[in-house]
Amino acid sequence: MATTTASNTNAPTTEFSKPIAFRVAIVGGGIGGLALALGLLKYDHIDVQVYEAAHTFGEIGAGVAFGVNTQRALKLIGPHAWDAFEKHATPNGWESHADVFAEHIVGKGEHEDEVIGSQKTPGGMKSVHRAHFLEELVKAVPADRAHFNKRLQSIETEESSKVVLHFKDGTTASADAVVGADGIHSATREFLLGERDMSVQSVFAGSVAYRGLVPMNKAVKKLGAEYAENSMFLCGPGKAIISYPIDHGKVLNIAVMDFERPAWENEKWIMPATYDELDRLFTGWGKKARGLIELLDIPDLKVWAMRDDLPAPTYTIGNVAMMGDAAHATTPYQGQGAGQAIEDALVLETLLGRLHNPKYIPNAFVSYDQVRRARSQRVVKTSREAGRLLAMMEEGVGSDLEKIRERLETRMHWIWNRDMEKQNGEAIAIFEESL
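Predicted structure:
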């Protein structure tokens, strides 16, 4: 069996340098995995290697929203991560929407076009084109730290505390610590939880999305400048449409949500769709909704099943941990999928960066688990609630606009206002107490 060995060519050689203390293998090179890699590259004593299943780094999907919590985490991870965000961040286009994360508007019925409320946070909505942001992160990862076509098949732990990764191409790699950032189809999650655990597989979350990218000039003609150039959530019975500018305002990202799908019958989570089926879903909706739907009369329209994770009992065992979608896949209704992965990366790099003896890697991972699991799992739960709120389906709220407005006003504060340095401090304190 062939073996891939990690290179130490980037190890520093000055008299002030510290020798390599341990090796970290990151399985998966999406936004979360690369954010962790960039964080760990700051530390001379850590040899970090990234193993990506595809032939190159890449992301599916289009726009991704970053809340202020995510922005603070990127800044703390380091200049490469922050600069990548700064280069591609797209705010709302109008000064009057500068501090608005999303404006919620009624899309159907007697209150059509009525503003339900605006979720406000300093800096408002900032989004990136997912693929462009990832490309920027990749630039800061040395070529000898990245390994492609490495789809994880299984994980083996040795008595020496080394962890051996077995890839589907027949190669292996060993490391002192493994972090699975391998997404919603995670082999790392399966290793940690076991095939029998009810939470090992993600589940259908009861909604689907039709997504598309539209040139902004076309969107402005159809929707008007204010609607097209700012973050908007159009709400109505059983449905919602989320739209916001990306790519420095040149493109409108549109996601049409249907919350009235009782089940998803296909094995594949992304399926071809037709404009006619989408059009029928919004019969009787107002002018803004009709305009948004007409903008999605595009070739290659697809429908995505929304899935999330049941709460895992742990994010780590021994020298193996999971992060991001592998640990806590979520629906997109709070704009926190990538954000929570980046928070994971910040806590993990902070803990591992303080560590010089590999025998304490399990302590670091347990500290990460204790700080991040409850918060990230609450995000998963409340994201479903946010979806039901958008679709006027939340129990005790329904289509009562005043109740929706009350919920919207403060429901995101616990996510956005989390002190990232304090979260790091809590993890460090737990780690130090465990030694």
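Summary: The two ends are 38 Å apart (CA to CA).
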